[in-house]
Every structure is written in C-alpha cells, then in structure tokens.
Design brief:
With 226 residues, this protein is an alpha/beta fold. The chain contains six helices and nine strands. Helix 3 links the parallel strand 4 and strand 5. The longest helix is centred in the C-terminal third of the chain and has 13 residues. The protein is globular, with a radius of gyration of 18 Å. Belongs to the radical SAM superfamily. 7-carboxy-7-deazaguanine synthase family.
Length: 226
C-alpha cells in the first residue's frame, strides 16, 4: 500500500474538526426555538461554567472531514443548523465549517461562550453570544470587545443563577444598551433559579429582554442527542 503524500495528509488534517455528535432535534432556545434543527456539537471547551449541561463534550469526540460533516447535515433534510459545543470557536477550523454550511443554503446559528473573538465568523451566521454571569464562575473570561461586534442578526444570552446574577445582567444590558443592538435573552439556570422568579423580575423591571426556557429540556430533560 502506498504511503499518503505529506502534502495530501496535511491538507486532509487541515479540513477536519473533532466532533462529539451530530443530531436532529428541535431548537430549544433563542430566536429559532421550535424549528427542526441539525446540531453539530464540536468537542472541547476552555471554560468550566458551574451550570454546564454538556460536560460530555469536553473530551473525546472523533475527527471528521468537513465534507463528511456537510453530507451528514444534508442527510437530515432540514434548513436550520446550529453549531455548538463545548465552545466551537476553540477549534479554529470551525470558521470554515460555518461558511461552508452557509454556502450550502442552511440558516446557521453559532452558540458561543463569548470568551473567544467572534470577528472572523461569517456575517451570514447568527451568533448567539453567552455572556457569563458571576455565578457561572467564568465571568472573568468574557471578551467584552465582542459586544461591539453584535448586529441585529445576532443574539446575546444570559443564564441567570440568582438575584445577584440578575441585577448584574440587567446592569450590563442597560449600561451597554444591548437591547438596541440585538435580541437579548434571559434564561434561568435550571437547577438554581425558579423560572417564575426570573419572569417576575423581568416583568417588574419592564426589562427590554426576552425571557426564555430551554424547550428541549422541558421535552427530553438532559438526554444527549435530543
């Protein structure tokens, strides 16, 4: 059997990403909630949020060629695709995958922690930026410069764990006028804050944000691949 030429091997490696799972479900949150969506979950994350529900994506996974990823996405036959993690932008080749998915005609969203520069993300992608609150344990990782890059096509999300988190997030939204820049989403940390409490606080303050609960958790709890 002939050996693979070094240049060919390098080219192949340059077109691969480590993938935890690819699956079809309903989008459970943000602007596209309720749409049948293919989720492409990349492996790895440099953060360790206290409320993380996808720790199984921190390690493992398998290397997949971008062409193979695109083929599997296409096989599901739906328009919406969400690239998530982990932290997908921790793999630099994610940028190329996002563009390829857009080129294929998909409506693409990216779920990112906000700890990594989003400036290189294809403008056709809706960036769902998760601003880390103090109770997440990762507030120091927020890359605040990212907020100035957000457009009406993007979304910003706060997972709120307690009243102090809420007041902190409210201050960020109002001081930076995020609601004038893009959709702002507040959701309760499932294990730490009552959804009713958070909803009541938002209503009392007439806060210009959208309350959301994670639809997929209501339907399937925390089952992987759902």
């Amino acid at each position: 059997m002939s050996a693979v030429a070094p240049d060919a091997a390098a080219a192949s490696a340059a077109d691969r990403l480590r993938i935890t799972e690819i699956f079809l479900s309903l989008q459970g949150e943000a602007r596209d909630a309720g749409w049948p969506t293919v989720f492409v979950r990349l492996t790895g994350c440099p953060l360790r949020c206290t409320y993380c529900d996808t720790a199984y994506a921190f390690h493992g996974g398998e290397w997949r060629d971008v062409d193979a990823i695109l083929a599997e996405v296409a096989r599901h036959g739906v328009r919406h695709v969400c690239v998530t993690g982990g932290e997908p932008l921790a793999q630099k080749r994610c940028l190329g995958l996002l563009s390829r998915l857009c080129d294929a005609g998909h409506a693409v969203s990216l779920e990112t922690s906000g700890a990594i520069d989003i400036s290189g993300v294809d403008a056709r992608v809706s960036r769902v930026l998760d601003v880390k609150t103090p109770a997440s344990g990762e507030v120091g990782r927020n890359l605040w410069e990212n907020l100035a890059l957000l457009t009406a096509h993007d979304q910003v999300k706060f997972v709120v764990c307690d009243r102090a988190d809420y007041e902190w997030a409210r201050g960020v939204v109002l001081e930076r006028a995020l609601h004038a820049r893009c959709d702002v989403l507040f959701s309760p940390s499932k294990s730490e804050l009552s959804a009713t409490e958070l909803a009541d606080w938002i209503v009392a303050d007439r806060l210009p944000v959208r309350f959301q609960m994670q639809l997929h958790k209501l339907l399937w709890n925390d089952a992987p691949g759902r």
